[in-house]
Amino acid sequence: MAVELKDLTKRSENYSQWYNDLVVKADLAEQSAVRGCMVIKPYGYAIWEKMQRQLDAMFKETGHVNAYFPLLIPKSFLSREADHVEGFAKECAVVTHYRLKNSPDGNGVVVDPEAKLEEELIIRPTSETIIWNTYKNWIQSYRDLPILCNQWANVFRWEMRTRMFLRTAEFLWQEGHTAHATREEAMEEAVRMLNVYADFAEKYMAVPVIKGVKTANERFAGALETYTIEAMMQDGKALQSGTSHFLGQNFAKAFDVKFINKENKLDYVWATSWGVSTRLMGALIMTHSDDNGLVLPPHLAPIQVVIVPIYRKAEQLAEVSAKVAPVVEALKAKGISVKYDDADNRRPGFKFADYELKGVPVRLVLGAKDLENGTVEVMRRDTLEKQTVPFEGIVDYVADLLEDIQNNIYQKARKFRDEHITIANSYDEFKEQIEAGGFVLAHWDGTTETELRVKEETKATIRCIPLDGDETPGTCIFTGKPSARRVIFARNY
Amino acid sequence: MAVELKDLTKRSENYSQWYNDLVVKADLAEQSAVRGCMVIKPYGYAIWEKMQRQLDAMFKETGHVNAYFPLLIPKSFLSREADHVEGFAKECAVVTHYRLKNSPDGNGVVVDPEAKLEEELIIRPTSETIIWNTYKNWIQSYRDLPILCNQWANVFRWEMRTRMFLRTAEFLWQEGHTAHATREEAMEEAVRMLNVYADFAEKYMAVPVIKGVKTANERFAGALETYTIEAMMQDGKALQSGTSHFLGQNFAKAFDVKFINKENKLDYVWATSWGVSTRLMGALIMTHSDDNGLVLPPHLAPIQVVIVPIYRKAEQLAEVSAKVAPVVEALKAKGISVKYDDADNRRPGFKFADYELKGVPVRLVLGAKDLENGTVEVMRRDTLEKQTVPFEGIVDYVADLLEDIQNNIYQKARKFRDEHITIANSYDEFKEQIEAGGFVLAHWDGTTETELRVKEETKATIRCIPLDGDETPGTCIFTGKPSARRVIFARNY
Fold it and tell me: 3-class SS at A245?
């Protein structure tokens, strides 16, 4: 299938269309036959796999273990926690029958009415309920605590408007669910995992994030406190990239999970949950990519280096291949993934465009002239700069260059982000700044009412109350009432 | 929670109960609140993860890539391939609605009748249909082939009688789905993946398997040929441990997937699919474990070595810990997972029983006497033999011992398997041998009718027509009709 680069919409023309085009053309994902569900294609999945491996290692380093809980949840479980059911009931896929049968008219199959479930089952939109129903049997005493489980799973939320990776009915994620003996310990855990997410976003995705707390209105359904990392996309909109929830004793109370504490008294267990999803793919794409295609951070690129030979005759190819072979081996030995593309059914120009589209961080090109001169042409995807460098020492050069690119795209994203954070001191100023795009630091009176009014009028939501930064009090831009500190407003995905 | 070893049923008393006890007591899995669905607990999941990592590496070495396809499948897709729908329609979980709403009586939530789907969706029992509907758009010419995709996923089959790991409504698996330009290439692929499965079973699980072909009656619904690996459990019953299917052009025809071949003619695409599941956990448990608990092959054990200190006073513990620390580091440096269990709230005897139950291959015990003598006590889980060996050189000793255990349990299982394969030359002999347990090599006339009659009368099924071994023709033990070769009969899980 031909790559038609010309068809990639320019970001300046239509950012949203550019994103949709890019997801499809870079072979990351495509719409499936099922409404709101995507197919994650091999190239997109390879990036997700790299994310998974790294996150999984970070979870294990912080003492967590993986487990697996059922896909289906009895409908009644959902109702146990009042806020939780309120938050999820309206978007549940419901299993009502367990059998099909041949259609009486001989055409295909129909649902067998005799195979109706006594209690309907819902496909997990998140697993707090089924997990806390399970934890009940695992916990008797403080000696059984903490429980630090994570699961990698698919979840389902019947969203009305979907966009690939950003908002799909089915998505892949991990959900950590921990149980603790004290409030303090659970709070610490929630913050610990927020920090793990922030580290991962910054060091691997090269996506700068702001850590903060959600307002009551934006909290997870059933949480006492929701921590978030918020990233800024190139169009100035915010993307919530990961959340970590302090659930208090809400789910322990809903599922009657008590334990004997160190003082030999019965108490409810304290909980957290935290998750990131394939939505991170959206953040990755929209933070770094350009009008030529994907720009991938070297730490997550499935192919970090591609080598393309230029040749006319078979002997020339043989010469280049012989020269390249030890470089490929040496790069692999350093743990760098490299592809030598000597396919003869695609011209070099086509290959160049394709690897640019796919965001491969470094491209090496080697031809007859290079063999003569002892050189190699190096192209870095982040700046598209080409340089001819000595072939001698190319392995170390490439290894350094990959780190340089990783750092450069982070700095670039950070600079862009910082340049698009403004401070509003009046509602007029605020509206102007929101319209212009980016994050706006403004005072807010702390009420949901004000938050919703501002959202209605400007489409901006409070992304978070930052954990760091200026904590000077002031007056709300909307009501003039006292404000404890500035919060971050933005339009968002 | 206390480990009550005494409650583990003996294999000789009730093999089936022993298995169920062991799964729960070794913390591998437990029943969930949802009928037929299990919770895979952290220790069980850690073993599954090791299986996944290894299989995934083997799939990638053979040129496969991972992708992800939707959980839900439109009902009509299932009907496209006649055998396929026949095989799966009766055990489908069916999603009919996409929303819940508050119950009018104020009690919990009910299905919102206004949120009924136009076409019902089924939870994938396997993904051939949704995947071939997707491949249709990926394939135009032979240049787009082969497609070599795998997915790690959960699937759902509404089984009436379930047993943890062996047969559960929801299970975890991988399913490979490949598309090829020629019949030969697809056949080669199906056999290649059978060999990957057999290698994995023998080298990592230490489970000897027989490779063979399924009879028409036991074929996957929609396949032209199903290859299988069959293992023998300690009770002599067979466990089908992995299957690889040559699907011919069945799904290509059902989903109209054509391509331009090298001769510039339009043809249907050739297909395979292949899968192994969490059922492998059952095979692992039932091949090696004993009345003391799990016996895990070192290549898949989450903890390969446990070190338990024996001490009276804190100073003694400090001495032992100091002595052990460099050994732990050295073992880790060799890629061996080791746990130093100096927890002071469990007595050594309790720890010993617990790690035996959990199947940790090697246990080292170090006390004051050992410090004096420069020794350490080594226990190997497979034989339960204890030996006191010099502390000097313990790292290499342990590394060698792990390989020795891996090899020993494989040989032991192989010997048991081989001793329980018998040859029947008459139906009377056959019935006796089947009753005694094990695999029976017998002649069969090749008809489904005979196969079903034998099954009805003896509960034995044809596990496979072996790929290797004696190919001498003979006469069917049941009908006396000509038989091309002996096949393997057994009772099975």
Answer: strand
